[in-house]
Amino acid sequence: MPNPKLEPLVLTEEERRLLEAWERRRKSSQALADRCRIVLACAEGESVSAVARQLGFGRGTVARWRSRFLEHRLEGLLDEPRPGRPRLISDEKVEEVITATLERKPPKGDTHWSTRSMASATGMSQSSISRIWRAFGLKPHLVQTWKLSKDPQFVDKVRDVVGLYLDPPAKAVVLCVDEKSQMQALDRTAPILPVLPTTPARMTHDYVRHGTTSLFAALNIATGQVIGSHHRKHRHQEFIKFLNTIDKNVPADLDVHVVCDNHATHKTEAVKKWLLRHPRFHVHFTPTSSSWLNLVERWFAELTNRKLRRSAHRSVAQLEADVHSWIKEWNADSKPFVWTKTADEILDNLAAYCQRINDSGH
Protein backbone atom coordinates (compact mmCIF):
# COMPACT_ATOMS: atom_id res chain seq x y z
CA MET A 1 0.00 0.00 0.00
CA PRO A 2 1.34 3.48 -0.84
CA ASN A 3 2.31 5.68 2.06
CA PRO A 4 -0.46 8.31 2.47
CA LYS A 5 2.17 10.83 3.60
CA LEU A 6 4.04 10.62 0.28
CA GLU A 7 3.28 13.23 -2.31
CA PRO A 8 1.65 11.42 -5.24
CA LEU A 9 3.80 11.11 -8.38
CA VAL A 10 1.69 11.89 -11.45
CA LEU A 11 3.15 11.90 -14.97
CA THR A 12 2.00 13.88 -17.96
CA GLU A 13 1.62 12.02 -21.24
CA GLU A 14 4.80 13.66 -22.60
CA GLU A 15 6.80 12.74 -19.47
CA ARG A 16 5.62 9.12 -19.63
CA ARG A 17 6.50 8.91 -23.33
CA LEU A 18 10.02 10.26 -22.75
CA LEU A 19 10.66 8.07 -19.70
CA GLU A 20 9.63 4.94 -21.60
CA ALA A 21 11.79 5.97 -24.58
CA TRP A 22 14.84 6.61 -22.37
CA GLU A 23 14.36 3.28 -20.63
CA ARG A 24 14.28 1.33 -23.92
CA ARG A 25 16.89 3.27 -25.89
CA ARG A 26 20.03 1.24 -26.39
CA LYS A 27 22.31 4.27 -26.17
CA SER A 28 20.95 5.37 -22.79
CA SER A 29 23.31 4.83 -19.87
CA GLN A 30 22.35 2.03 -17.48
CA ALA A 31 22.01 4.56 -14.64
CA LEU A 32 19.49 6.69 -16.57
CA ALA A 33 17.49 3.63 -17.62
CA ASP A 34 17.29 2.48 -13.96
CA ARG A 35 16.09 5.91 -12.83
CA CYS A 36 13.38 5.91 -15.51
CA ARG A 37 12.17 2.48 -14.32
CA ILE A 38 12.01 3.74 -10.72
CA VAL A 39 9.90 6.79 -11.65
CA LEU A 40 7.58 4.77 -13.91
CA ALA A 41 7.00 2.22 -11.14
CA CYS A 42 6.38 4.94 -8.56
CA ALA A 43 3.88 6.57 -10.92
CA GLU A 44 1.77 3.38 -10.72
CA GLY A 45 1.04 4.23 -7.06
CA GLU A 46 3.36 1.65 -5.51
CA SER A 47 5.10 2.37 -2.22
CA VAL A 48 8.84 3.04 -2.03
CA SER A 49 9.41 -0.36 -0.38
CA ALA A 50 7.33 -2.18 -3.01
CA VAL A 51 9.21 -0.53 -5.88
CA ALA A 52 12.55 -1.34 -4.22
CA ARG A 53 11.62 -5.03 -3.91
CA GLN A 54 10.17 -5.15 -7.43
CA LEU A 55 13.22 -3.62 -9.16
CA GLY A 56 15.91 -4.88 -6.81
CA PHE A 57 17.14 -1.50 -5.60
CA GLY A 58 17.73 -0.18 -2.12
CA ARG A 59 14.88 1.71 -0.50
CA GLY A 60 17.08 4.82 -0.21
CA THR A 61 17.83 4.75 -3.93
CA VAL A 62 14.16 4.63 -4.88
CA ALA A 63 13.29 7.39 -2.40
CA ARG A 64 16.08 9.64 -3.66
CA TRP A 65 15.13 9.47 -7.36
CA ARG A 66 11.43 9.72 -6.59
CA SER A 67 12.12 12.90 -4.63
CA ARG A 68 14.46 14.28 -7.31
CA PHE A 69 11.80 13.78 -9.98
CA LEU A 70 9.08 15.47 -7.93
CA GLU A 71 11.37 18.48 -7.37
CA HIS A 72 13.00 18.87 -10.81
CA ARG A 73 10.87 16.61 -13.08
CA LEU A 74 12.83 15.10 -16.00
CA GLU A 75 15.91 17.24 -15.41
CA GLY A 76 16.19 15.73 -11.95
CA LEU A 77 17.13 12.34 -13.42
CA LEU A 78 20.31 13.68 -15.02
CA ASP A 79 23.63 13.67 -13.18
CA GLU A 80 24.52 16.91 -11.48
CA PRO A 81 27.90 18.47 -12.29
CA ARG A 82 30.45 16.88 -10.04
CA PRO A 83 32.79 19.03 -8.00
CA GLY A 84 36.39 18.87 -9.11
CA ARG A 85 39.69 20.69 -9.22
CA PRO A 86 39.20 24.24 -10.54
CA ARG A 87 40.74 25.06 -13.89
CA LEU A 88 44.28 26.37 -13.47
CA ILE A 89 45.15 27.41 -17.05
CA SER A 90 43.33 30.51 -18.28
CA ASP A 91 42.19 31.15 -21.83
CA GLU A 92 44.91 33.79 -22.11
CA LYS A 93 47.63 31.23 -21.30
CA VAL A 94 46.21 28.78 -23.83
CA GLU A 95 46.19 31.54 -26.45
CA GLU A 96 49.78 32.41 -25.56
CA VAL A 97 50.91 28.81 -26.16
CA ILE A 98 49.06 28.53 -29.48
CA THR A 99 50.35 31.89 -30.72
CA ALA A 100 53.92 31.06 -29.75
CA THR A 101 53.70 27.66 -31.44
CA LEU A 102 52.40 29.11 -34.70
CA GLU A 103 54.20 32.45 -34.91
CA ARG A 104 57.35 32.50 -32.78
CA LYS A 105 60.67 30.80 -33.43
CA PRO A 106 61.99 28.48 -30.71
CA PRO A 107 65.05 29.57 -28.70
CA LYS A 108 68.67 28.42 -29.14
CA GLY A 109 68.32 28.14 -32.91
CA ASP A 110 66.08 25.05 -32.75
CA THR A 111 64.06 24.31 -35.88
CA HIS A 112 60.83 23.53 -34.00
CA TRP A 113 59.24 23.71 -30.57
CA SER A 114 59.30 20.81 -28.15
CA THR A 115 57.14 20.44 -25.04
CA ARG A 116 60.24 21.09 -22.95
CA SER A 117 61.25 24.31 -24.75
CA MET A 118 57.66 25.61 -24.82
CA ALA A 119 57.20 24.83 -21.14
CA SER A 120 60.39 26.74 -20.36
CA ALA A 121 59.29 29.72 -22.47
CA THR A 122 55.79 29.96 -20.98
CA GLY A 123 56.44 28.85 -17.40
CA MET A 124 54.00 25.93 -17.70
CA SER A 125 54.48 22.19 -17.29
CA GLN A 126 55.31 19.86 -20.18
CA SER A 127 52.11 17.89 -19.59
CA SER A 128 50.04 21.08 -19.88
CA ILE A 129 51.75 22.01 -23.16
CA SER A 130 51.15 18.49 -24.46
CA ARG A 131 47.43 18.65 -23.57
CA ILE A 132 47.01 22.02 -25.29
CA TRP A 133 48.77 20.83 -28.44
CA ARG A 134 46.63 17.69 -28.56
CA ALA A 135 43.43 19.69 -28.06
CA PHE A 136 44.24 21.96 -31.02
CA GLY A 137 45.88 19.34 -33.25
CA LEU A 138 49.34 20.95 -33.16
CA LYS A 139 52.31 18.68 -33.93
CA PRO A 140 55.47 20.81 -34.19
CA HIS A 141 57.69 17.71 -34.27
CA LEU A 142 56.20 16.48 -37.56
CA VAL A 143 56.95 17.77 -41.05
CA GLN A 144 55.50 16.72 -44.39
CA THR A 145 57.07 17.11 -47.81
CA TRP A 146 55.40 18.41 -50.94
CA LYS A 147 56.41 19.60 -54.38
CA LEU A 148 54.63 21.97 -56.72
CA SER A 149 54.74 21.02 -60.39
CA LYS A 150 56.27 23.62 -62.71
CA ASP A 151 54.97 21.92 -65.84
CA PRO A 152 53.71 24.67 -68.20
CA GLN A 153 50.99 22.27 -69.36
CA PHE A 154 49.98 21.29 -65.83
CA VAL A 155 46.31 22.31 -66.13
CA ASP A 156 45.80 20.60 -69.50
CA LYS A 157 47.48 17.39 -68.35
CA VAL A 158 45.45 17.25 -65.13
CA ARG A 159 42.21 17.66 -67.08
CA ASP A 160 43.33 15.01 -69.59
CA VAL A 161 44.29 12.34 -67.02
CA VAL A 162 41.42 12.99 -64.60
CA GLY A 163 39.01 12.97 -67.53
CA LEU A 164 40.21 9.45 -68.38
CA TYR A 165 39.62 8.31 -64.80
CA LEU A 166 36.14 9.81 -64.43
CA ASP A 167 34.85 9.24 -67.96
CA PRO A 168 36.92 6.56 -69.74
CA PRO A 169 36.35 6.28 -73.50
CA ALA A 170 34.13 3.54 -74.93
CA LYS A 171 35.66 0.40 -76.43
CA ALA A 172 38.96 1.14 -74.73
CA VAL A 173 41.00 0.14 -71.70
CA VAL A 174 42.79 2.71 -69.53
CA LEU A 175 46.08 1.51 -68.02
CA CYS A 176 48.23 3.36 -65.50
CA VAL A 177 51.82 2.39 -66.24
CA ASP A 178 55.03 2.93 -64.31
CA GLU A 179 58.18 1.18 -63.17
CA LYS A 180 59.15 0.32 -59.61
CA SER A 181 62.87 0.43 -60.21
CA GLN A 182 65.73 -0.75 -58.02
CA MET A 183 63.69 -3.30 -56.07
CA GLN A 184 66.30 -4.89 -53.82
CA ALA A 185 66.49 -8.57 -52.93
CA LEU A 186 67.31 -8.20 -49.24
CA ASP A 187 67.98 -11.01 -46.79
CA ARG A 188 68.08 -10.37 -43.05
CA THR A 189 71.20 -11.46 -41.18
CA ALA A 190 69.02 -13.42 -38.72
CA PRO A 191 65.60 -15.09 -39.02
CA ILE A 192 62.53 -12.88 -38.64
CA LEU A 193 60.89 -13.57 -35.27
CA PRO A 194 57.10 -14.08 -35.44
CA VAL A 195 54.49 -11.97 -33.67
CA LEU A 196 53.67 -13.04 -30.09
CA PRO A 197 51.15 -11.84 -27.52
CA THR A 198 52.25 -8.32 -26.42
CA THR A 199 55.26 -8.54 -28.77
CA PRO A 200 55.32 -7.47 -32.46
CA ALA A 201 57.23 -9.35 -35.14
CA ARG A 202 60.93 -8.54 -35.01
CA MET A 203 63.65 -8.42 -37.63
CA THR A 204 67.28 -7.34 -37.58
CA HIS A 205 68.05 -3.82 -38.74
CA ASP A 206 70.94 -5.02 -40.92
CA TYR A 207 70.62 -7.02 -44.11
CA VAL A 208 72.53 -8.50 -47.06
CA ARG A 209 71.91 -7.22 -50.61
CA HIS A 210 71.52 -9.80 -53.37
CA GLY A 211 70.89 -7.54 -56.38
CA THR A 212 68.08 -5.47 -57.83
CA THR A 213 65.28 -5.76 -60.37
CA SER A 214 62.69 -3.41 -61.87
CA LEU A 215 58.98 -4.15 -61.96
CA PHE A 216 57.04 -2.75 -64.90
CA ALA A 217 53.35 -2.62 -64.00
CA ALA A 218 50.12 -1.60 -65.75
CA LEU A 219 47.01 -1.09 -63.59
CA ASN A 220 43.61 -1.43 -65.27
CA ILE A 221 41.54 1.36 -63.67
CA ALA A 222 38.26 -0.41 -64.45
CA THR A 223 39.04 -3.81 -62.91
CA GLY A 224 42.05 -3.20 -60.65
CA GLN A 225 43.95 -6.02 -62.34
CA VAL A 226 47.66 -5.63 -62.97
CA ILE A 227 49.93 -6.67 -65.83
CA GLY A 228 53.45 -7.05 -64.43
CA SER A 229 56.82 -7.81 -65.93
CA HIS A 230 60.31 -7.93 -64.39
CA HIS A 231 63.43 -6.63 -66.08
CA ARG A 232 66.96 -6.34 -64.72
CA LYS A 233 67.49 -2.98 -66.47
CA HIS A 234 65.37 0.14 -66.78
CA ARG A 235 65.82 1.44 -70.32
CA HIS A 236 63.60 2.23 -73.30
CA GLN A 237 64.29 -1.26 -74.64
CA GLU A 238 62.67 -2.79 -71.55
CA PHE A 239 59.78 -0.31 -71.78
CA ILE A 240 59.10 -1.36 -75.36
CA LYS A 241 59.18 -5.02 -74.30
CA PHE A 242 56.58 -4.19 -71.66
CA LEU A 243 54.42 -2.37 -74.23
CA ASN A 244 54.53 -5.57 -76.29
CA THR A 245 53.42 -7.50 -73.21
CA ILE A 246 50.48 -5.13 -72.80
CA ASP A 247 49.65 -5.47 -76.49
CA LYS A 248 49.43 -9.26 -76.13
CA ASN A 249 47.28 -9.12 -72.97
CA VAL A 250 44.69 -6.57 -74.14
CA PRO A 251 42.04 -7.77 -76.64
CA ALA A 252 42.81 -6.58 -80.16
CA ASP A 253 39.44 -4.84 -80.61
CA LEU A 254 40.09 -2.37 -77.76
CA ASP A 255 42.03 0.87 -77.83
CA VAL A 256 44.67 1.26 -75.13
CA HIS A 257 45.08 4.54 -73.24
CA VAL A 258 48.33 4.55 -71.28
CA VAL A 259 48.87 6.99 -68.39
CA CYS A 260 52.57 7.35 -67.55
CA ASP A 261 55.08 9.88 -66.25
CA ASN A 262 57.67 11.95 -68.10
CA HIS A 263 60.64 9.61 -67.64
CA ALA A 264 63.09 9.79 -70.52
CA THR A 265 62.63 6.09 -71.32
CA HIS A 266 59.00 6.80 -72.24
CA LYS A 267 59.85 9.44 -74.86
CA THR A 268 62.73 8.07 -76.93
CA GLU A 269 62.59 7.89 -80.72
CA ALA A 270 62.34 4.11 -80.54
CA VAL A 271 59.24 4.37 -78.32
CA LYS A 272 57.67 6.96 -80.63
CA LYS A 273 58.22 4.68 -83.64
CA TRP A 274 56.69 1.76 -81.74
CA LEU A 275 53.60 3.84 -80.99
CA LEU A 276 53.28 4.80 -84.66
CA ARG A 277 53.28 1.10 -85.56
CA HIS A 278 50.57 0.47 -82.94
CA PRO A 279 47.95 3.18 -83.54
CA ARG A 280 45.52 1.76 -80.94
CA PHE A 281 47.90 2.94 -78.20
CA HIS A 282 47.38 6.48 -76.90
CA VAL A 283 49.83 7.89 -74.34
CA HIS A 284 48.76 10.46 -71.72
CA PHE A 285 51.59 12.03 -69.72
CA THR A 286 51.08 13.21 -66.15
CA PRO A 287 52.54 16.62 -65.24
CA THR A 288 56.11 16.67 -63.99
CA SER A 289 56.47 16.11 -60.22
CA SER A 290 52.92 14.75 -60.07
CA SER A 291 53.27 11.03 -59.43
CA TRP A 292 50.14 11.26 -57.20
CA LEU A 293 48.12 11.55 -60.41
CA ASN A 294 49.12 8.05 -61.56
CA LEU A 295 46.95 5.41 -59.87
CA VAL A 296 49.55 2.68 -60.29
CA GLU A 297 51.56 4.47 -57.57
CA ARG A 298 48.73 3.63 -55.18
CA TRP A 299 49.08 -0.02 -56.15
CA PHE A 300 52.85 0.15 -55.64
CA ALA A 301 52.14 1.29 -52.07
CA GLU A 302 50.03 -1.85 -51.53
CA LEU A 303 52.84 -4.00 -52.92
CA THR A 304 55.38 -2.36 -50.61
CA ASN A 305 53.26 -2.50 -47.45
CA ARG A 306 51.81 -5.96 -47.91
CA LYS A 307 54.72 -7.83 -49.50
CA LEU A 308 58.10 -6.13 -49.81
CA ARG A 309 58.66 -4.31 -46.50
CA ARG A 310 58.68 -7.44 -44.34
CA SER A 311 59.98 -10.01 -46.81
CA ALA A 312 63.41 -11.60 -47.08
CA HIS A 313 64.87 -12.90 -50.37
CA ARG A 314 68.19 -14.60 -51.01
CA SER A 315 68.30 -13.89 -54.74
CA VAL A 316 66.77 -11.63 -57.38
CA ALA A 317 65.06 -14.63 -58.96
CA GLN A 318 63.41 -15.45 -55.64
CA LEU A 319 62.23 -11.84 -55.28
CA GLU A 320 60.80 -11.79 -58.80
CA ALA A 321 58.99 -15.11 -58.28
CA ASP A 322 57.56 -13.90 -54.97
CA VAL A 323 56.27 -10.65 -56.48
CA HIS A 324 54.86 -12.49 -59.50
CA SER A 325 52.97 -14.84 -57.18
CA TRP A 326 51.62 -11.90 -55.18
CA ILE A 327 50.38 -10.18 -58.37
CA LYS A 328 48.63 -13.41 -59.35
CA GLU A 329 46.86 -13.50 -55.97
CA TRP A 330 45.96 -9.82 -56.32
CA ASN A 331 44.41 -10.37 -59.75
CA ALA A 332 42.34 -13.28 -58.44
CA ASP A 333 40.48 -10.87 -56.15
CA SER A 334 41.25 -7.45 -57.59
CA LYS A 335 39.38 -4.28 -56.72
CA PRO A 336 39.85 -0.98 -58.56
CA PHE A 337 40.99 2.23 -56.91
CA VAL A 338 38.15 4.70 -57.47
CA TRP A 339 39.15 8.25 -58.39
CA THR A 340 36.66 10.80 -56.98
CA LYS A 341 38.14 14.29 -57.36
CA THR A 342 37.28 16.27 -60.49
CA ALA A 343 39.93 18.32 -62.27
CA ASP A 344 38.24 21.55 -61.16
CA GLU A 345 38.31 20.45 -57.50
CA ILE A 346 42.01 19.60 -57.75
CA LEU A 347 42.88 22.91 -59.40
CA ASP A 348 40.75 24.91 -56.94
CA ASN A 349 42.44 23.20 -53.97
CA LEU A 350 45.86 23.87 -55.47
CA ALA A 351 45.00 27.53 -56.09
CA ALA A 352 43.84 27.92 -52.48
CA TYR A 353 47.05 26.27 -51.23
CA CYS A 354 49.20 28.57 -53.36
CA GLN A 355 47.28 31.55 -51.99
CA ARG A 356 48.01 30.39 -48.43
CA ILE A 357 51.71 30.19 -49.31
CA ASN A 358 51.67 33.72 -50.73
CA ASP A 359 49.83 35.05 -47.67
CA SER A 360 52.21 33.39 -45.21
CA GLY A 361 54.91 35.97 -45.85
CA HIS A 362 57.68 33.37 -46.21
Folded structure, characterized:
The protein is of the alpha/beta class. It folds into 3 domains: 13-77; 91-135; 158-351, Nucleotidyltransferase, domain 5 (2-Layer Sandwich), CATH 3.30.420.10. The protein is 45% helix and 13% strand. It is built from 13 helices and 5 strands. The protein has helices at 13-24, 30-43, 48-55, 59-72, 91-103, 115-122, 126-135, 154-166, 236-249, 269-277, 296-308, 316-332, 343-359, and strands at residues 172-188, 207-220, 226-231, 255-260, 281-285. A 5-stranded mixed β-sheet has the order 3-2-1-4-5. Helix 10 links the parallel strand 4 (255-260) and strand 5 (281-285). The protein is elongated, with a radius of gyration of 34 Å.
Write the layout of secondary structure elements.
Blueprint: H1 13-24, H2 30-43, H3 48-55, H4 59-72, H5 91-103, H6 115-122, H7 126-135, H8 154-166, E1 172-188, E2 207-220, E3 226-231, H9 236-249, E4 255-260, H10 269-277, E5 281-285, H11 296-308, H12 316-332, H13 343-359
Parallel strand pairs: 1-4, 4-5
Antiparallel strand pairs: 1-2, 2-3
Helix pairs in contact: 1-2, 2-3, 2-4, 3-4, 6-7, 8-13
| Class by alpha and beta content | alpha/beta
- Overall, the morphology is elongated
CATH architecture of the largest domain: 2-Layer Sandwich
- Approximate helicity band: 40-55%
* Total domain count: 3
Query: Could you tell me the number of beta strands?
Result: 5
Report the uncertain regions: none
Straight-line N-to-C gap? 81 Å
- CATH C-level class of the largest domain is Alpha Beta
Largest sheet: 5 strands, mixed
Helix/strand order:
HHHHHHHHEEEHEHEHHH
CATH superfamily of the largest domain: Ribonuclease H-like superfamily/Ribonuclease H
Cα Rg: 34 Å
